[in-house]
């Protein structure tokens, strides 16, 4: 579709006054052709492919940003899930070495993050998957830009509780080994993980993807908040329509940038992820959209209704604007990255339990949630299992990015800086479900998965 002059001027206004940006352009790279029996040659192949591709991404992105005047906040890379290509070199030391190669390759090119250091373990873990899991405390404490994921379940396969049990202890070890527990912010556990997600920490280049693909994540909480504030007297049907039309416009901007950048890089254009992704600045808060809709604080009664309405309208508008909507495409509620969410936790309006209920109607789950550092590993595993079971039963993507903040107790604040912001440490339930979680096994696939 052609872009009209009016659309271009309107997009410029959104950029200048309401904080519209392209949150990320993420280049997916297939690394399967880099595999070599000689580990040194394998590492060299990986470094050269990622580094050369990353340099082109940064160069072309900078030119496009100047051409259109739309800020592109992050350039990122996602790669083939590392456990799939490390089978011939399955030792903890080599996994750590490979993570450092990924880290150096993108750092030398000026790319912000590289995703894909992870595994698909929804029905069980291979020997290489187990080694990767054991290596995560070292990997995430010894690298700066490498991000990790695990997909532990899907609507079709059910959920792997054996891996979730191990994750509680692994996350505590990551928090202890990394400065300010920051390593946990670079790891996410999913069910129903999409192969074309451009957002970190969960991005990876799926096995069904081509050699390269270019995926774009847009962000416009300030734009949505602006139109909601302009329409204070309309009913919810009319408000939904207003949000839908605005999401259409922001998605068109993402489509324009994505298609042109893919053309410049000579790679296939993948998807536009239409997620509302906040950042810790005043005009970029999803929680404050809820405030403009009439909810005093995120977490108040009515918050779930507001998030559901917002999510539905954004998806409808995005789907109208592009035939390539994908990735997560929902509404992010990351506690530390959204000033309105931080305020809601600190004033007592938002609890961990209420946040879990909000994630049943948005994506992508419990995100950037800090809990006391002395939380037992079994309780962390239970929090993860609770959240991910929502995704299994409802056939939706759910994720957990949780930080057991070392040396912190409920009510304290942990500072991360940058886009990660600051996280108020949230209280967890005093009671235990260790007896349930320790049973392990696999949560069976739900009845609704039998659709063939």
UniProtKB/TrEMBL annotation:
Superkingdom of source: Archaea
Signal peptide: none
InterPro entries (UniProt xref): UPF0210
Listed Gene3D superfamilies: 3.20.70.20
NCBIfam families for the chain: PRK05313.1 (NF003700)
Family: Belongs to the UPF0210 family.
Protein name: UPF0210 protein AKJ45_01695
Provenance organism: candidate division MSBL1 archaeon SCGC-AAA261F19
């Amino acid at each position: 579709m052609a872009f009209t002059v009016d659309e271009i001027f309107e997009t410029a206004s959104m950029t200048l006054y309401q904080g519209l940006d392209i949150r990320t352009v993420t280049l997916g790279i297939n690394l399967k052709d880099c595999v070599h029996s000689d580990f040194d040659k394998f590492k060299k192949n990986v470094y050269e492919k990622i580094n050369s591709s990353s340099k082109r991404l940064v160069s072309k992105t900078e030119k496009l940003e100047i051409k259109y005047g739309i800020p592109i906040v992050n350039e990122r890379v996602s790669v083939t899930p590392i456990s799939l290509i490390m089978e011939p070199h399955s030792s903890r030391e080599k996994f750590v070495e490979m993570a450092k190669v990924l880290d150096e390759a993108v750092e030398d090119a000026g790319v912000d993050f590289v995703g894909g250091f992870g595994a698909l373990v929804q029905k069980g873990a291979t020997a290489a998957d187990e080694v990767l899991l054991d290596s995560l405390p070292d990997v995430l404490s010894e690298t700066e830009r490498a991000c990790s994921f695990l997909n532990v379940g899907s609507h079709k396969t059910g959920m792997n509780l054996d891996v979730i049990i191990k994750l509680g202890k692994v996350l505590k070890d990551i928090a202890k080994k990394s400065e300010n527990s920051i390593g946990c912010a670079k790891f996410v556990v999913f069910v129903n993980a999409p192969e074309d997600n451009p957002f970190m920490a969960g991005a990876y280049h799926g096995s069904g993807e081509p050699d390269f693909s270019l995926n774009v994540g847009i962000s416009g909480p300030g734009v949505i908040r602006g139109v909601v504030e302009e329409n204070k007297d309309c009913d919810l049907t009319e408000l939904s329509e207003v949000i839908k039309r605005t999401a259409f416009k922001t998605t068109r901007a993402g489509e324009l940038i994505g298609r042109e950048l893919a053309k410049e890089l000579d790679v296939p254009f993948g998807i536009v992820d239409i997620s509302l992704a906040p950042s810790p600045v005043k005009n970029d808060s999803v929680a404050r959209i809820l405030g403009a809709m009439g909810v005093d604080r995120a977490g108040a009664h009515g918050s779930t209704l507001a998030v559901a309405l917002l999510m539905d309208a954004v998806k409808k508008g995005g789907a109208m604007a592009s035939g390539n909507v994908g990735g997560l495409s929902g509404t992010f509620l990351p506690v530390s990255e959204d000033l309105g969410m931080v305020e809601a936790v600190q004033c007592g309006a938002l609890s961990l339990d209420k946040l879990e209920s909000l994630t049943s109607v948005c994506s992508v789950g419990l995100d950037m949630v800090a809990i006391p550092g002395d939380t037992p590993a079994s309780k962390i595993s239970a929090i993860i299992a609770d959240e991910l079971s929502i995704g299994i039963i409802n056939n939706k993507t759910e994720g957990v990015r949780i930080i057991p903040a070392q040396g912190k107790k409920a009510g304290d604040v942990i500072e991360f800086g940058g886009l990660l912001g600051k996280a108020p440490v949230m209280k967890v339930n005093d009671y235990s479900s260790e007896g349930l979680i320790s049973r392990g096994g696999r949560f069976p696939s739900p009845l609704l998965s039998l659709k063939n």
